[in-house]
Specification:
18% strand; 2 domains; Rossmann fold
Amino acid sequence: MFKRSLSQLDKLPKSQVAEWLGGIDTIICSTDGVLWQENNPIEGSMEAFNAFTAKGKRSLMVTNDCCLTSSDLIQKAKCLGFKAQDQDILSSAGSISSYLIDRKFKKKVLVLGGNGICKELQKAGFCSVVNVQRPDGRNRFDFVMNLVLDPDVGAVLVGRDDSLESNQLIAACNYLQDPKVLFLATCTDGFLAYGKRRIPDAGTVAAAIQVIVNRMPTILGKPNPRILGKLLESGEIKPERTLVIGNSLRADIAFANLCGFHSLLVGQDNGALEEAENIKKEGNEKKMKLVPDTFLPSLAPFLELLSTEVKPGQKSGKKPQETLGGSEKQQKQSEKK
Protein backbone atom coordinates (compact mmCIF):
# COMPACT_ATOMS: atom_id res chain seq x y z
CA MET A 1 0.00 0.00 0.00
CA PHE A 2 2.76 2.48 0.94
CA LYS A 3 5.78 0.86 -0.77
CA ARG A 4 8.82 3.18 -0.52
CA SER A 5 6.55 6.23 -0.40
CA LEU A 6 7.80 7.65 2.94
CA SER A 7 4.16 8.21 3.91
CA GLN A 8 3.72 10.01 7.23
CA LEU A 9 1.20 7.80 9.02
CA ASP A 10 0.03 10.47 11.46
CA LYS A 11 -1.06 12.67 8.53
CA LEU A 12 -3.07 10.02 6.69
CA PRO A 13 -6.74 9.06 7.21
CA LYS A 14 -6.90 6.76 10.22
CA SER A 15 -9.14 4.34 8.35
CA GLN A 16 -6.47 3.87 5.68
CA VAL A 17 -3.72 3.26 8.26
CA ALA A 18 -5.98 0.96 10.24
CA GLU A 19 -6.67 -1.17 7.18
CA TRP A 20 -2.94 -1.44 6.49
CA LEU A 21 -2.19 -2.44 10.09
CA GLY A 22 -4.85 -5.12 9.90
CA GLY A 23 -2.71 -6.95 7.33
CA ILE A 24 0.35 -7.06 9.60
CA ASP A 25 0.93 -10.22 11.69
CA THR A 26 4.57 -9.78 12.74
CA ILE A 27 6.36 -6.63 13.89
CA ILE A 28 10.16 -6.49 14.06
CA CYS A 29 11.46 -3.64 16.21
CA SER A 30 14.97 -2.32 16.46
CA THR A 31 15.95 -1.45 20.03
CA ASP A 32 18.33 1.52 20.53
CA GLY A 33 16.68 4.73 19.36
CA VAL A 34 13.35 3.00 18.72
CA LEU A 35 12.31 1.25 21.94
CA TRP A 36 14.84 2.69 24.35
CA GLN A 37 17.74 5.10 24.67
CA GLU A 38 20.48 3.45 26.73
CA ASN A 39 18.60 2.50 29.93
CA ASN A 40 15.40 4.50 29.44
CA PRO A 41 12.36 3.56 27.34
CA ILE A 42 11.48 6.16 24.71
CA GLU A 43 8.17 7.82 25.50
CA GLY A 44 5.25 5.73 24.24
CA SER A 45 7.45 2.88 22.96
CA MET A 46 6.80 0.42 25.75
CA GLU A 47 3.04 0.99 25.61
CA ALA A 48 3.01 0.62 21.80
CA PHE A 49 5.14 -2.54 21.81
CA ASN A 50 2.94 -4.16 24.45
CA ALA A 51 -0.15 -3.09 22.50
CA PHE A 52 1.15 -4.96 19.44
CA THR A 53 1.24 -8.14 21.51
CA ALA A 54 -2.16 -7.42 23.05
CA LYS A 55 -3.59 -7.21 19.53
CA GLY A 56 -2.28 -10.69 18.76
CA LYS A 57 0.71 -9.63 16.65
CA ARG A 58 4.02 -11.40 17.09
CA SER A 59 6.52 -8.79 18.28
CA LEU A 60 10.25 -9.37 17.79
CA MET A 61 13.21 -7.31 18.95
CA VAL A 62 16.08 -7.61 16.46
CA THR A 63 19.26 -5.69 17.21
CA ASN A 64 22.83 -5.28 15.99
CA ASP A 65 23.90 -4.29 19.51
CA CYS A 66 26.63 -6.61 20.77
CA CYS A 67 27.42 -4.91 24.08
CA LEU A 68 24.99 -7.19 25.95
CA THR A 69 24.42 -10.95 25.76
CA SER A 70 21.03 -12.21 24.57
CA SER A 71 20.02 -13.04 28.15
CA ASP A 72 21.09 -9.55 29.28
CA LEU A 73 19.03 -8.00 26.47
CA ILE A 74 15.99 -10.00 27.52
CA GLN A 75 16.45 -8.95 31.13
CA LYS A 76 16.87 -5.30 30.12
CA ALA A 77 13.70 -5.35 28.00
CA LYS A 78 11.64 -6.88 30.78
CA CYS A 79 13.04 -4.48 33.40
CA LEU A 80 12.02 -1.56 31.18
CA GLY A 81 8.46 -2.91 31.03
CA PHE A 82 8.43 -4.56 27.60
CA LYS A 83 6.39 -7.78 27.49
CA ALA A 84 8.89 -9.70 25.41
CA GLN A 85 9.32 -13.45 25.17
CA ASP A 86 12.82 -14.89 25.52
CA GLN A 87 12.77 -16.45 22.03
CA ASP A 88 11.63 -13.20 20.42
CA ILE A 89 14.82 -11.21 21.04
CA LEU A 90 17.45 -11.76 18.33
CA SER A 91 20.89 -10.13 18.09
CA SER A 92 23.79 -10.09 15.65
CA ALA A 93 25.67 -12.50 17.95
CA GLY A 94 23.47 -15.41 16.86
CA SER A 95 23.99 -14.51 13.19
CA ILE A 96 27.77 -14.40 13.63
CA SER A 97 27.85 -17.74 15.45
CA SER A 98 25.74 -19.46 12.77
CA TYR A 99 28.00 -18.00 10.05
CA LEU A 100 31.14 -19.37 11.71
CA ILE A 101 29.49 -22.74 12.32
CA ASP A 102 28.48 -22.98 8.64
CA ARG A 103 32.10 -22.29 7.64
CA LYS A 104 33.34 -24.94 10.12
CA PHE A 105 35.53 -22.22 11.61
CA LYS A 106 38.04 -23.58 14.16
CA LYS A 107 40.34 -20.64 14.85
CA LYS A 108 40.25 -17.69 17.28
CA VAL A 109 38.23 -14.51 16.75
CA LEU A 110 39.81 -11.15 17.56
CA VAL A 111 36.91 -9.03 18.83
CA LEU A 112 36.65 -5.26 18.68
CA GLY A 113 33.35 -5.03 20.49
CA GLY A 114 31.55 -5.28 23.82
CA ASN A 115 31.80 -8.11 26.32
CA GLY A 116 28.40 -9.38 25.23
CA ILE A 117 29.61 -10.59 21.85
CA CYS A 118 32.66 -12.30 23.41
CA LYS A 119 30.45 -14.21 25.83
CA GLU A 120 28.03 -15.22 23.08
CA LEU A 121 30.87 -16.53 20.90
CA GLN A 122 32.32 -18.50 23.79
CA LYS A 123 28.87 -19.93 24.52
CA ALA A 124 28.72 -21.13 20.89
CA GLY A 125 32.10 -22.83 21.29
CA PHE A 126 34.40 -20.23 19.71
CA CYS A 127 37.51 -18.77 21.30
CA SER A 128 37.32 -14.98 21.29
CA VAL A 129 40.34 -12.86 22.11
CA VAL A 130 40.80 -9.18 22.80
CA ASN A 131 44.16 -7.60 22.06
CA VAL A 132 45.77 -6.79 25.43
CA GLN A 133 49.13 -5.57 24.13
CA ARG A 134 49.61 -1.92 24.97
CA PRO A 135 52.10 0.70 23.74
CA ASP A 136 53.30 1.30 27.35
CA GLY A 137 54.90 4.61 26.48
CA ARG A 138 56.35 3.47 23.15
CA ASN A 139 55.57 5.44 20.02
CA ARG A 140 53.25 3.77 17.52
CA PHE A 141 56.11 2.75 15.22
CA ASP A 142 57.90 0.86 17.99
CA PHE A 143 54.59 -0.69 19.04
CA VAL A 144 53.83 -1.93 15.52
CA MET A 145 57.33 -3.31 15.00
CA ASN A 146 57.10 -5.32 18.23
CA LEU A 147 53.47 -6.40 17.81
CA VAL A 148 53.15 -10.18 18.19
CA LEU A 149 50.42 -11.65 15.97
CA ASP A 150 48.81 -14.89 17.11
CA PRO A 151 48.83 -17.34 14.15
CA ASP A 152 45.67 -18.99 15.53
CA VAL A 153 43.56 -15.84 14.96
CA GLY A 154 41.41 -16.53 11.90
CA ALA A 155 38.89 -13.69 12.07
CA VAL A 156 38.55 -10.07 13.15
CA LEU A 157 35.07 -9.09 14.32
CA VAL A 158 34.08 -5.41 14.60
CA GLY A 159 31.11 -4.40 16.75
CA ARG A 160 30.19 -1.38 18.80
CA ASP A 161 32.91 -0.83 21.40
CA ASP A 162 32.60 2.21 23.66
CA SER A 163 36.08 1.59 25.12
CA LEU A 164 38.03 0.94 21.90
CA GLU A 165 41.75 1.76 22.13
CA SER A 166 44.10 2.61 19.27
CA ASN A 167 46.27 -0.46 19.94
CA GLN A 168 43.26 -2.70 19.27
CA LEU A 169 42.68 -0.96 15.94
CA ILE A 170 46.35 -1.36 15.01
CA ALA A 171 46.30 -5.07 15.87
CA ALA A 172 43.11 -5.64 13.84
CA CYS A 173 44.56 -3.94 10.76
CA ASN A 174 47.71 -6.04 10.90
CA TYR A 175 45.83 -9.33 11.30
CA LEU A 176 43.75 -8.39 8.26
CA GLN A 177 46.83 -8.01 6.09
CA ASP A 178 46.47 -11.77 5.78
CA PRO A 179 43.66 -12.40 3.25
CA LYS A 180 42.85 -15.72 4.96
CA VAL A 181 41.76 -13.87 8.12
CA LEU A 182 38.01 -13.15 7.95
CA PHE A 183 36.86 -9.53 8.24
CA LEU A 184 33.44 -9.49 9.95
CA ALA A 185 31.25 -6.67 11.28
CA THR A 186 27.90 -6.44 13.06
CA CYS A 187 26.62 -3.47 11.03
CA THR A 188 27.47 -0.54 8.78
CA ASP A 189 25.94 2.15 11.02
CA GLY A 190 28.41 4.98 11.52
CA PHE A 191 26.97 6.26 14.78
CA LEU A 192 24.43 5.80 17.53
CA ALA A 193 22.27 8.90 18.02
CA TYR A 194 21.74 10.15 21.56
CA GLY A 195 19.50 13.15 21.03
CA LYS A 196 21.65 15.55 19.02
CA ARG A 197 24.84 13.84 20.23
CA ARG A 198 26.68 11.06 18.37
CA ILE A 199 28.44 7.90 19.58
CA PRO A 200 30.64 6.03 17.04
CA ASP A 201 29.19 2.66 16.07
CA ALA A 202 30.68 -0.44 14.44
CA GLY A 203 30.40 1.01 10.94
CA THR A 204 32.82 3.83 11.77
CA VAL A 205 35.51 1.42 12.99
CA ALA A 206 34.92 -1.03 10.13
CA ALA A 207 35.19 1.80 7.58
CA ALA A 208 38.49 2.97 9.08
CA ILE A 209 39.92 -0.56 8.89
CA GLN A 210 38.56 -0.98 5.36
CA VAL A 211 40.54 2.05 4.16
CA ILE A 212 43.74 0.65 5.65
CA VAL A 213 43.47 -3.00 4.54
CA ASN A 214 41.52 -2.37 1.30
CA ARG A 215 38.98 -5.07 2.17
CA MET A 216 35.21 -5.01 2.60
CA PRO A 217 33.80 -6.56 5.79
CA THR A 218 31.10 -9.22 5.75
CA ILE A 219 28.12 -7.67 7.55
CA LEU A 220 26.31 -10.27 9.68
CA GLY A 221 23.79 -8.11 11.53
CA LYS A 222 20.99 -6.19 9.82
CA PRO A 223 20.52 -5.82 6.85
CA ASN A 224 21.68 -9.44 6.50
CA PRO A 225 18.56 -11.68 6.76
CA ARG A 226 20.72 -14.27 8.58
CA ILE A 227 19.96 -12.40 11.81
CA LEU A 228 16.45 -13.92 11.71
CA GLY A 229 17.79 -17.45 11.90
CA LYS A 230 15.31 -19.94 10.42
CA LEU A 231 12.22 -17.73 10.81
CA LEU A 232 12.08 -16.71 7.16
CA GLU A 233 12.98 -19.93 5.36
CA SER A 234 10.70 -21.98 7.62
CA GLY A 235 7.76 -19.74 6.72
CA GLU A 236 7.19 -18.91 10.39
CA ILE A 237 6.97 -15.27 9.41
CA LYS A 238 5.49 -14.13 6.10
CA PRO A 239 7.23 -11.17 4.37
CA GLU A 240 4.01 -9.61 3.05
CA ARG A 241 2.55 -9.57 6.58
CA THR A 242 5.68 -8.37 8.42
CA LEU A 243 6.61 -4.81 9.42
CA VAL A 244 10.11 -3.62 10.37
CA ILE A 245 10.31 -0.58 12.65
CA GLY A 246 13.71 1.09 12.88
CA ASN A 247 15.66 4.34 12.85
CA SER A 248 18.50 3.40 10.47
CA LEU A 249 18.19 3.50 6.69
CA ARG A 250 21.18 1.23 6.06
CA ALA A 251 20.41 -1.33 8.74
CA ASP A 252 16.63 -1.40 9.30
CA ILE A 253 15.10 -0.06 6.08
CA ALA A 254 17.55 -1.86 3.77
CA PHE A 255 16.89 -5.02 5.82
CA ALA A 256 13.12 -4.65 5.33
CA ASN A 257 13.42 -4.09 1.57
CA LEU A 258 15.89 -6.97 1.18
CA CYS A 259 13.47 -9.37 2.93
CA GLY A 260 10.32 -8.02 1.26
CA PHE A 261 8.91 -6.64 4.54
CA HIS A 262 6.95 -3.45 5.11
CA SER A 263 9.04 -0.69 6.73
CA LEU A 264 8.50 2.17 9.17
CA LEU A 265 11.15 4.76 10.01
CA VAL A 266 10.88 6.40 13.43
CA GLY A 267 12.79 9.26 15.05
CA GLN A 268 13.85 12.72 13.92
CA ASP A 269 17.22 13.43 15.50
CA ASN A 270 19.62 11.29 13.46
CA GLY A 271 19.13 12.81 9.99
CA ALA A 272 17.60 9.64 8.50
CA LEU A 273 14.31 11.30 7.54
CA GLU A 274 16.04 14.12 5.68
CA GLU A 275 18.32 11.65 3.86
CA ALA A 276 15.34 9.50 2.83
CA GLU A 277 13.49 12.57 1.53
CA ASN A 278 16.52 13.58 -0.55
CA ILE A 279 16.89 10.09 -2.02
CA LYS A 280 13.22 10.05 -2.95
CA LYS A 281 13.55 13.44 -4.69
CA GLU A 282 16.63 12.28 -6.61
CA GLY A 283 14.81 9.16 -7.79
CA ASN A 284 18.03 7.13 -7.89
CA GLU A 285 16.71 3.56 -8.22
CA LYS A 286 19.85 2.06 -6.66
CA LYS A 287 19.35 4.12 -3.51
CA MET A 288 15.58 3.65 -3.30
CA LYS A 289 16.08 0.51 -1.20
CA LEU A 290 16.93 2.93 1.62
CA VAL A 291 13.58 4.74 1.41
CA PRO A 292 11.04 3.51 3.96
CA ASP A 293 7.39 2.87 3.24
CA THR A 294 6.20 4.96 6.18
CA PHE A 295 7.36 7.37 8.89
CA LEU A 296 6.38 8.36 12.44
CA PRO A 297 8.25 10.64 14.86
CA SER A 298 7.90 7.93 17.55
CA LEU A 299 5.86 4.83 18.37
CA ALA A 300 3.46 6.74 20.61
CA PRO A 301 0.81 7.39 17.87
CA PHE A 302 0.44 3.63 17.40
CA LEU A 303 -1.75 3.38 20.48
CA GLU A 304 -4.50 5.36 18.78
CA LEU A 305 -3.91 3.75 15.38
CA LEU A 306 -4.17 0.24 16.82
CA SER A 307 -7.47 1.08 18.48
CA THR A 308 -9.03 1.58 15.03
CA GLU A 309 -7.27 -1.31 13.31
CA VAL A 310 -9.27 -3.03 10.59
CA LYS A 311 -8.94 -6.79 10.25
CA PRO A 312 -8.56 -8.35 6.76
CA GLY A 313 -11.96 -8.70 5.11
CA GLN A 314 -13.52 -6.05 7.35
CA LYS A 315 -14.74 -2.86 5.66
CA SER A 316 -12.53 0.10 6.50
CA GLY A 317 -15.52 2.35 7.06
CA LYS A 318 -16.92 0.09 9.73
CA LYS A 319 -15.72 0.57 13.26
CA PRO A 320 -14.14 -2.57 14.76
CA GLN A 321 -16.19 -4.12 17.54
CA GLU A 322 -13.19 -4.32 19.82
CA THR A 323 -10.81 -1.45 20.36
CA LEU A 324 -7.59 -1.85 22.31
CA GLY A 325 -8.71 -2.82 25.77
CA GLY A 326 -12.34 -2.99 24.64
CA SER A 327 -12.81 -6.65 25.56
CA GLU A 328 -11.64 -5.90 29.10
CA LYS A 329 -14.25 -3.13 29.44
CA GLN A 330 -17.02 -5.42 28.22
CA GLN A 331 -15.94 -8.09 30.68
CA LYS A 332 -16.03 -5.64 33.60
CA GLN A 333 -19.49 -4.38 32.57
CA SER A 334 -20.86 -7.93 32.43
CA GLU A 335 -19.38 -8.65 35.87
CA LYS A 336 -21.17 -5.61 37.31
CA LYS A 337 -24.49 -6.86 35.87
